[in-house]
Batch of 3 targets.
Target 1
Amino acid sequence: MNRIPGFVIVGASLAGATAAQTLRDEGFTGQIVLLGDEPHRPYERPPLSKEYLLGKSGREKVFVHPESWYAQHDIDLRLATTVTALDRASQLVTLADGSLLHYDALLLATGSSPRRLNLPGADLGGVLYLRRLEDSEALKSAFAHSPRVVVIGGGWIGLETAAAARTAGLQVTVLEQGDLPLQRVLGNEVAQVFADLHRHNGVDLRCGVHVTALTGTHGHVTAVELADGTQVEADVVLVGVGITPNTGLAGAAGLAVGNGITVDQHLRTADPNVYAAGDVADAYHPSLGRQVRVEHWANARRQGVIAAKSMLGQSVVYDRLPYFFTDQYELGMEYSGYVDADGFDQVVFRGDVAGLEFLAFWLADQRVLAGMSVNVWDVTSGIEQLVGSGRQVDTTLLADPAVPIETL
C-alpha cells in the first residue's frame, strides 16, 4: 500500500495559511499539519496598526479564514504548539511536548519578532511592542487610559501607530534616531513628506535623537530619557525599532541563514524537502538578481502560494516585485519595486506633492527602480510594468501627469 504523503507547515501565519489553502486548491489530498505557537488561528497583521487598533473593525475581520474552514478542508491546525527541533535526515520535527511529526515536505513560515530595547527601564509596565494580536489589544486598551504616547522609532509600525494615536486624540511624540523617519527606506525627499504629514497632524516628531533609558514609578513607565538629558513624559511607550526574522529553528538544523532563511527563486532551501516563505524568507529574486527579504503583507500572501506549488513539484518562480502599502491620516500609499537607500541617483515626482496626491519614482541611470502612489489609485500595474521593463525613461515625461505611465 502506498503511504499518503504528508506536509508540515511551521508557522500558522498568513504565509502558512495561504500555503495550506493553495495545497488544497491545487488538489493535494495528503495530510497537512499547520503548527502555530500562538493561541489564535492565522490572522493578518496590517489591521493591528490600522483598523483594528482604531476600533474600526471587529476581531473576526483580522483572521485569514473562518474558524470552521480548517476542519472543512482537512487541515490539522494545532495552535499554542511550539516546534523545538528539525531533523532533516529523518524528515522529522520535534514539538515542545516531545512528540514527533514526519514530513515529506516542510514549509518554514516562522515570521519575525520585534527587536527589543536593551536599555535601563525597558522592562517597565507600559512599554509595549506591536507584532501579535494581543499586542494590538494591549495598545488599544492603553490608548483608552494614556493621554501621552511616546513612539520610539520612525519606521512603518511606529508611524502607523502614531497616526492611530493622534486619530484617537492622544498627545504623541515620535523619537527617531535618523535625520528623518523612513529615511533608509524612502530617501530624504520622500521621507520628508511623511515627516511633514505627522507634524501637520500634531505629532511632536523629534529626529536625530538617541534614547538612553526609560524611567518610571511604581513599576510603570513615566518618561523616556534622551542622550542630552531631556525627559519626554509618557503614559505609554510603543517600541518600533524593527524586526528580526525567526531563523533559529532553521539555523540549528544546518540550513543556510543570512538575512533570513536562504531560499532560491522557488522558495526552496538547499534541502530539497524544506521551503521557506514570508518575513523569514531571504529569497533569490530573478529580476533583481539578488537575495531579498520583504517584511510586508503582500509578500507573505504571494509567497505562500508559490511555496505550496513548489512543494507539489510545480516549476514555479517567485518573481513578483516587492509591494507594500500604508494608511496614515488622510494619506493612502502603495509602493512597488525595490531600491536601497543609496541605490538611486534621482527621485522624480508627478502630481501635487503638497496636496498629497502624487506619484514618486526612484531612478538610477534613468531607469525606474521603484514607484509610489499617494492618493492616486489604479496605477500600481502601470508602475510595476515600468519598473519591470528596465528601460531608460525621459524624466520630463515621467513627471508629466498628462503622459500615461504605460506609454513611457
Target 2
Amino acid sequence: MKKRLCTICARGGSKGVPGKNIRDLAGRPLISHSIKQAQISNLFDVIAVSSDSVAILDVAKSYGVSELVLRPDDLASDSSGKVPAIRHCVETVETARGLQFDSLVDLDATSPLRLVSDIESAVRLLETTACKSVITGAPARRSPYFNLVETGPNDSVRLSKPTDPPILRRQDAPACYDMNASIYVWQRDAFMQDAKVFYDDTRLFVMPENRSIDIDSELDFSLVELIFRQRDGRGQHVGNR
C-alpha cells in the first residue's frame, strides 16, 4: 500500500486579494475547501498545511488537519517559489512522523473548484504510468501557434511560435494547455532528489476550464463565488466526485 502525503501551502500575505486563504467562500474559509477535498478522497495517510501565518494554521487545525507546518520567513516572501516550501513541508512531516512517503500531492489552496475525482485521477495517472510527476491544466484560450503574441525589437509584434507555412485556423494548431496550478503529484524520491515541476516524463491531467480558476484577483474570487452558487443550485458540491 502506497503512503501518500497531501500538502496544502498557503501564505498569509497576498497583494491581489488580501487575506484570501481564510476569506469566506461559500460559507467557510477558502483553504477549507481543499482540506475537505483531501479528506473526502481517503487517498492520504497525512494531510499537512504549510503557512507562515498562525491564523491560517489555526483555521486548518479547526478543520481537522493535524500536521501544521510553520513556514520559515525565507520561504514565505513574495519572491519565494512554492516548490521549496513543499519540500520543507515534506521534510518536516517525514521527520515528525518517522516515515517516508511514496507519493506527494499538492493541492493549491486558491483553486477550490477541483473535484475529488480530479485528485483521484491525477494520482492514478502518476501511479499507473510510473512517471515522476503529474501536473493539471485546462485547454488554452490562446494558441502560441495562432493568436498568442509577444513583442520584439522596436516594439514589433510576432506570434510566439510561428510556423512555416503559417497556421490559418486555430483548429489546425497543436493542442496547448494553461497550467491551472490546481494539483501537482510527484513520486516522492524523484522530488526529494531534484525538487521541480517538470521532468523528462511529466504527464498532464486535463481539467475543464470551469474547474481551473486560480484565485489571484478580486475578479477571480467573484467568478469562483458565482460558480459555487450555481453548483449549490444544482446540488453539486465541490466535494462531489
Target 3
Amino acid sequence: MDAPLKLLLIAGSARRGALSVRLRDAARQAAERAGASSAVLDLRALALPVYDGDLEAAQGVPAGATTLRDAIVAHDALLIATPEYNGFPTPLVINAFDWLSRLPDGLAVTANKPVALVASSPGALGGLRSMNFLRQYLQMAFQTLVLPAQQAVGKAHEAFGPDGNLADARAAATLDGVVKALLREAALRRHAG
C-alpha cells in the first residue's frame, strides 16, 4: 500500500487572524479527510529579507530559502492560500519564491510540482485577481503545474464556522474538490515517476 500523499500548505499572509491562514487551515482539514498527510509552512518564519541582488552578492542566499526548497521537495504537492493586496499576491509570497529562485536548484524543485491555489478576501471577488497573478507567476517563472481547479472565497471574514471549516456547504464542497483534484494529480505524478 502506498504511503499517504504529502501536502504542503502555505498562507500568503502571516498576520494574526489572517483570512488566508483560516482558509489554509480549512484546506488542511480537507486534505486530512481525504487521507493525505499535511504540513504547514509559515513564510514569516523563514525570515527572508526583501530580495536585493547586492545583499545576495554580499551574504549569499538566506537559509530560509533552503528551508522553503526542502519543504517543497519533501511534499508531493503544494497548496497556497493567498489574500489580495491591491489586486496582487502578497509581497511575502512573491519574495519567498524570488529567493527560492536564487538557489542553484531552486527552479528544478518546482518544475512540474502540482500546485492548487485558493484565495480569500473580505471583498466580493474573494481574491480572484491575486490568484490569477499568482498562477501566472508560478507557471511561467517556476514551471509549476497549477491546477485549473481553484477557489476564491469572497466575504471571507464571514465565511468560516466555529470549527474552522467554511460554513457554506457549497463553498466547503468546492474546497474539498480543489484539494481532491490536487491529490489526484499528485498521485498520478508519484506513480508516473
